[in-house]
Structures are given as structure tokens and as C-alpha cells.
Backbone:
């Protein structure tokens, strides 16, 4: 079987699994779990085989015309380079682990068949984005992911948080997709093709007439899909969905799609220095802002959500300085350790019966209850904080090295200003990342108080995948020398300067947070106001839904908690109340966009009901009045009808005589 055929099967198998799961979900529920896991597992195996055959060598291209358009053709095309085949392996691995994990996490959920089918369809769409060589086909996968995320984030539709989060995720990402679509058409108009290879060839030959406009339009879609400032606000709220969905969407698939898209078309963006500076500013604000917000969150999954936003900021920063190898390297390592963090968080929430770090800090014994989650989460947090020798250290260093080279003029792909922005913001974010990672670990696993309820060991389906994903979290960074050919052939090894700087500031951030925690533990004897934990004797998905509802009921918000023992509150000081709300961006957008739009809708409603409908009702009233007058003449009396007929005839006769005399006299 050829490599091209194998590559076609990779996105096709999860799609077929999704279709079969939906068809058999009610009639043969026993087949739902195999249909969810096996096609995705087969796609992951085939993705590994495609990657080994591609081998980091020359890209493999294949295409057939999908439909004639009369102008720019649309092709069903594959473009398999080193980046594509490695990202596909990551997507297949994480999706398989999520499907296996979900069989236990939602074991008694009545909506599991539709959930599993949507996860498979989501996986198929992302693999289509990864392998596609035509931008219109890529757009199909891009939009399918968007609608799947709407349904998956809203899985707990009974809770108002999930309903609002799913709608917000859909609308915010669509807000970015509109200019993104315009940018795609503008790009095709300039280059004469939707094929990625044709676009890159045209750019190299100077065939791009409006590089800045096109790049900025495309960046709007990237900001929405990859949760970059200012369109990042949907991602923390999306934590209202099931934890496996968070691991899938926010680790290896949807949020990575925008980064991957820019990496694929980096020469388009590099053709405009202004666009790269805008991307660098966006990345810098995202990295620092998300790090501050993560340090203030009480919901364990919202901490990880803001962490995801910040790490995506690192990837955007690497692209802003023109190094797509560093960006994709960090995308791959982040996908592995962030999947571990989210899936471990699901185990922690189930064991503790709450998603509140404030409540967990008043519990003891979690490390003994869930040793698998404790150890794998510890490893993943070390990778997140970029502590050597874990994967996150090597990939984050690759980003900082690229920024350093650009800042000091060793690379001329991007302006030096972009390099300095990314370098300074990256080092600052390294301190914040280590701080919130340390805070999460201390509050979740070093709590003081009554022991957490013991409800037995977690299912093997939930714990085994943690160790599977822990392997690349530990070892992937050590493979940089082996995978050079897959990353444009240039080295991704750390430099001494940035390694010492970033590791040093990371250790400072962790130690300062530990000192703040030791200082505030005296307050931990007093439980936070209204702390409520769900009962941990139910299935994990039900516990999570109850935890979300109880957290909001107790604290009035899913984000924060009035906890005096929180070291983040001490470290942030007066900035804490702003950081916990995401610096009031939601309130700002509500004032600038939501309320004016709602007011305009009310005005349109008034005009429609009181003005337009008035004319409609008036015309109807006139017709009814005339009908009433005519109806009075219809008495049903034959004598009346004959009398009216004779009277009319007499009037006509008299009129005829009069007119004849008038004309005769004339």
C-alpha cells in the first residue's frame, strides 16, 4: 500500500467510526466503544507508519481536482512534509488516549454514543487539516472542528455554564473565521491557487501583491482558533465541558490548528514585516496576560486553560521570529504534557469531588488515593515549567533561542523588534509559568485537613493512558538530534545563555511561590467561604458536572474563590482581583459589542413590530372593512337582488340617453 493511500486512510477511519457509532448508538450500544477506540487507534498506527515512510525527506504531494470552479480550482490534495506527519502522530496518539479514557470517564452517560462519534469526527477533521494540501479542503476540516467543539463543550447542557461556554466558543471563533475566509480568498486571488505548494511558489517569486492585508486577515482567524489575544476569552470558559474534551481540544487539536496553519504558510506572513510585529505583540501580550490570570484561578482546569493560552503564545512567538521548526516542536511537546495535565486533572476532580483548588488545599491524602495521577501530573508540571530534562524545557528553549537570534540580528527573517518582544515576554512568562505550576501542585497535593474520600482505585482505562502520554512528556525533548530532518533540517538544541536564564527565572518563580505558600498555610485551617465539594462516589463525568455547579453556587463564579491561604493572592496583591476575571476583557467586550448589538436588535424588533407590522395590520384592516361593506349587500333575498338589478339597468339606460343627447347637441 502506497504512502498516499495510507495517508488518505488516516482521517477517513475516524470519520467512518463516527458515522458507524451514530448509526449503531441506539440499536447496538455494545459496539459504540469499540467503534470509538479502534478506528482512532488504527488511524494513529497508520499515522506513525506514514511518518516513518516520509522520514523527514522531501514532501509527498498528491492531488485530484475536486470540482471545477471556472476560476481558481479546488483540489483534494495531500501535502506530507515533516511537520504534517509528526503533528498527525500527535493528534492520533492524544485522540486515542482520550477515547480510551472516555470509556471509563463517561461509562454511564446516556449521551456517550453521540459524544464518542463527535470526538471521532473532531479527530478526523483535525487530521484533514494536518494532511490537506489545499486551503479550501483545509477550511472544511477547520469548520467541522468548530461545530464539533460547540457540541462537545456543551455536553453538560443541563448546566448554564456549559450552555454559555459552548455558545461563546462558537461565536468568538466564528468572529475570527469571517476575516480568515476573506483572507483565504484574497490569497487565492493574488496567487491564482488554493494549493499550498502553489501559494508558496508564488510568494517565493514575488507574486503576492497585498501581503500585509492578507496576513492580518488570516491572523484574525488564527487568533480565534488558537485562543490568542484578543480572541482568547472563549478557552477558559470552555472548561465547562468534560475533561477528556478539554484534553483533546486544548492539547493537540483545535487550538493547535491556527499555529499549524501559520507554520504551513509562514513565507506568506514573512513577506510582511508589519504582520510579524503584530504577531509578536499578540504573542507577548498573550504570554504575560495568561500567566497572570492562571496564577489567580481557583478552578484547576481554568489554570490549565490559561496555561494553554500562554504556551500557544510561545508558539506564536516562534512564528513571529520566523522559526516554524521551534513553533511546531513546542506544539508537539506541549500536546503531550498538556494532555497528561488535563486527563490527570479529571482523575483529581473525581477523587477530590471538587474542581476547586481552595477546597483541595483543605484535604489530605490525595497523593495516596491517586498515585498515578500524582506522579504523571508532577512530571507534566515540571515539563510545563521547562525544567530539564523534560520535553517542555527543550521545546521552550528552541523558541527562546530563535527569539535571541532574531533580537541580536543573527537571523533576518523578522524584525529585531519582534525578537526582543518575544524574548523578554518569554522569559517573563517563564517566571509566571513556574509560579502557577508550583501553586497548582501545592494546593492540589499538599493540602491539610480531613482525608479525601476513598472510593477505590481509578479505572485502568483512565490511569493507563496517563503513563502512555508521560513517555513523550519525559523523552520527546531528548530526540531533537534524531528528528532534525523533520524540522527543516536546522538544530533545535538549547543555547547556554537562554537555558541558564529561563531555567533560573523558572526556579525563582517556583521558589517564591513555595515561600508564599508556606507563609499563607496558617490561614488554611479556616475553610474558604461557601466551599462545597460534590460527592465522589458517582461516575467521574457526573462528579465534574456537580463540581462545576457547586463551585459557581458557592463562590458566585467558576474562576475564583475568597481563599486567604492562596499564595497566588499574596503574589499578585491588588492585581489579583483583575487577573481572576481575565482582566475584565469579557466585561469590556460586553460593553463594546454585546450590549450595542442587543440594543440594535431591540430597535429592529421595535421597528418590525410597531412600524412594519402597523402597515401590514392597516392594509389588512382596510381589506376587512371593505369586505364588511360588501357583505351587507349579500342578504340572500331574491327580490332584493332583482330590484337592484332593475334599478341598475334603469340607471344605465338613463345615462345612455343623457349621453346620446349630449353628443347629438354637440
Residues:
Amino acid at each position: 500500500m502506497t504512502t498516499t493511500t495510507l495517508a488518505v486512510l488516516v482521517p477517513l477511519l475516524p470519520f467512518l467510526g463516527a458515522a458507524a457509532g451514530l448509526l449503531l448508538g441506539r440499536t447496538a450500544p455494545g459496539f459504540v466503544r469499540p467503534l470509538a477506540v479502534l478506528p482512532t487507534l488504527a488511524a494513529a498506527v497508520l499515522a506513525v507508519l506514514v511518518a516513518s515512510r516520509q522520514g523527514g525527506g522531501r514532501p509527498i504531494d498528491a492531488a485530484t481536482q475536486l470540482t471545477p470552479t471556472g476560476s481558481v480550482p479546488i483540489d483534494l490534495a495531500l501535502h506530507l512534509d515533516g511537520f504534517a506527519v509528526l503533528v498527525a502522530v500527535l493528534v492520533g496518539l492524544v485522540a486515542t488516549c482520550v477515547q480510551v479514557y472516555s470509556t471509563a470517564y463517561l461509562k454511564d452517560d446516556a449521551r456517550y454514543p453521540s459524544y464518542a462519534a463527535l470526538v471521532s469526527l473532531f479527530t478526523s477533521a483535525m487530521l484533514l487539516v494536518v494532511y490537506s494540501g489545499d486551503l479550501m479542503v483545509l477550511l472544511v476540516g477547520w469548520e467541522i472542528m468548530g461545530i464539533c467543539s460547540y457540541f462537545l463543550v456543551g455536553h453538560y447542557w443541563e448546566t448554564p455554564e456549559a450552555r454559555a461556554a459552548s455558545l461563546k466558543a462558537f461565536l468568538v471563533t466564528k468572529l475570527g473565521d469571517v476575516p480568515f475566509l476573506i483572507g483565504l480568498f484574497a490569497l487565492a486571488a493574488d496567487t491564482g491557487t488554493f494549493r499550498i505548494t502553489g501559494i508558496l511558489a508564488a510568494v517565493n517569486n514575488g507574486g503576492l501583491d497585498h501581503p500585509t492585508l492578507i496576513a492580518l486577515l488570516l491572523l484574525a482567524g488564527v487568533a480565534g482558533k488558537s485562543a490568542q489575544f484578543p480572541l482568547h476569552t472563549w478557552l477558559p470558559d470552555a472548561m465547562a465541558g468534560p475533561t477528556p474534551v478539554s484534553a483533546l481540544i486544548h492539547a493537540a487539536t483545535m487550538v493547535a490548528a491556527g499555529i499549524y496553519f501559520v507554520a504551513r504558510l509562514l513565507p506568506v506572513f514573512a513577506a510582511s514585516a508589519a504582520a510579524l510585529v503584530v504577531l509578536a505583540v499578540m504573542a507577548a501580550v498573550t504570554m504575560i496576560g495568561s500567566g497572570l490570570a492562571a496564577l489567580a484561578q481557583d478552578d484547576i482546569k481554568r489554570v490549565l486553560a490559561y496555561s494553554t493560552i500562554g504556551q500557544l503564545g510561545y508558539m506564536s512567538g516562534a512564528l513571529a521570529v520566523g522559526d516554524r521548526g521551534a513553533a511546531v516542536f513546542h506544539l508537539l511537546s506541549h500536546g503531550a504534557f498538556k494532555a497528561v495535565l488535563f486527563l490527570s486533572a479529571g482523575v483529581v476532580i473525581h477523587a477530590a469531588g471538587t474542581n476547586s483548588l481552595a477546597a483541595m488545599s483543605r484535604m489530605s491524602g490525595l497523593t495516596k488515593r491517586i498515585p498515578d495521577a500524582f506522579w504523571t501530573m508532577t512530571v507534566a508540571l515540571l515539563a510545563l515549567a521547562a525544567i530539564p530534562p523534560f520535553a517542555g524545557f527543550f521545546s521552550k528553549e528552541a523558541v527562546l533561542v530563535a527569539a535571541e537570534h532574531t533580537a541580536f540580528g543573527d537571523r533576518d527573517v523578522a524584525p529585531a523588534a519582534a525578537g526582543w518582544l518575544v524574548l523578554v515576554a518569554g522569559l517573563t512568562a517563564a517566571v509566571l509559568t513556574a509560579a502557577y505550576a508550583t501553586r497548582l501542585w501545592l494546593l492540589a497535593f499538599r493540602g491539610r485537613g480531613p482525608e479525601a474520600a476513598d472510593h477505590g482505585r481509578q479505572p485502568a482505562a483512565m490511569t493507563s493512558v496517563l503513563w502512555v502520554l508521560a513517555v513523550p512528556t519525559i523523552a520527546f525533548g531528548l530526540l531533537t538530534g534524531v528528528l532534525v530532518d523533520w524540522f527543516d533540517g536546522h538544530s533545535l538544541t538549547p543555547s547556554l545563555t537562554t537555558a541558564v536564564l529561563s531555567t533560573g527565572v523558572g526556579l525563582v518563580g517556583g521558589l517564591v511561590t513555595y515561600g508564599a505558600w508556606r507563609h499563607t498555610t496558617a490561614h488554611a485551617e479556616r475553610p474558604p467561604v461557601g466551599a462545597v465539594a460534590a460527592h465522589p462516589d458517582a461516575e467521574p463525568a457526573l462528579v465534574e458536572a456537580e463540581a462545576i455547579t457547586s463551585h459557581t453556587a458557592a463562590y458566585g463564579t467558576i474562576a475564583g474563590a475568597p481563599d486567604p491561604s492562596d499564595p497566588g493572592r499574596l503574589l499578585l496583591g491588588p492585581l489579583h482581583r483583575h487577573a481572576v476575571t481575565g482582566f475584565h476583557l469579557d466585561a469590556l467586550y460586553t460593553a463594546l459589542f454585546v450590549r450595542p448589538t442587543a440594543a440594535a436588535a431591540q430597535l429592529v424588533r421595535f421597528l418590525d413590530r410597531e412600524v412594519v407590522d402597523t402597515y401590514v395590520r392597516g392594509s389588512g384592516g382596510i381589506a376587512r372593512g371593505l369586505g364588511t361593506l360588501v357583505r351587507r349587500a349579500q342578504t340572500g333575498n331574491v327580490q332584493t337582488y332583482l330590484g337592484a338589478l332593475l334599478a341598475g339597468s334603469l340607471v344605465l339606460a338613463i345615462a345612455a340617453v343623457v349621453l346620446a343627447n349630449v353628443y347629438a347637441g354637440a
Notes: The chain has 27 helices and two strands. The first strand starts at residue 60 and ends at 67.
